[in-house]
Amino acid sequence: MDVERLAIIQRVLAKEILRQAFQTLNLFGAQASDSVHGEFGSAAQWSQPTPPNQPGGPPGPSVEQMVSAWIQNNQPAIARTTDVLLVYTHANLMAQRQTMIDFMNNHLIGRIAAGCQRSDANSGLVKRAFSERRIASHVRLEHKFAQR
Questions:
Q1: Residue 96: which of 18, 29, 27, 7 has the closest Cα?
Q2: Residue 53 to residues 61, 62, 70: CA-CA distances in angstroms?
Q3: Considering only CA atoms, which of 131, 108, 117, 120 is closest in space to residue 40?
Q4: Distance CA 137, CA 142 (A)
Q5: What is the phi/psi pair of residue 116, to 5°?
Q6: CA distance 59 to 104
């Protein structure tokens, strides 16, 4: 892992925060993971209500709402995970610790929601899995910046 690039550290941090949230909230379910990037369900499931707790009961909150609440309620875990990822990084990245934490708290959920709603038809990417869309989005952004 390139420990001198903010984009890479931030992407790894986002994935780990999502993994922790999904595991704690039992959102992985029984589905088998066939993606090397991890399995966070389909993009369409992100904003859909979860099944009712009891048959015939009201639907539960959406995955987006559950993960957002988990992030807000687990600040020590986010800080600890950030600190672990920054251990052997360059001092310039260590100085951006709070910026990374702020991104997780204030922008991660919105970026995921936008990525799940976006149509990838124009880019030739047909990705149903949320993790595949997230990775494809980051690859396109990094490619654009590398071309400048």
A1: 7
A2: 11, 13, 19
A3: 131
A4: 9
A5: -75, -30
A6: 27
CA distance 36 to 19: 13
Taking only the tens place, the pLDDT of each residue in 126-148 is: 445 555 555 455 444 443 334 33
What is the rounded end-to-end Cα distance, in angstroms, of the chain?
Answer: 23
Amino acid at 82: T
CA 148 – CA 132 distance, rounded (Å) = 25
Contact 3, 90 (CB under 8 A): yes
Q: Return the structure tokens found at 14.
A: 């986002």
CA dihedral for 70, 72, 75, 80, sign (positive or negative): positive
- Count of C-beta atoms within a 10 Å radius of residue 97: 15
Q: What letter represents residue 67's amino acid?
A: V
Domain boundaries in the chain?
A: 6-47+60-147
Q: Mind listing the pLDDT tens digit for each residue in 99-113?
A: 999 999 999 999 999
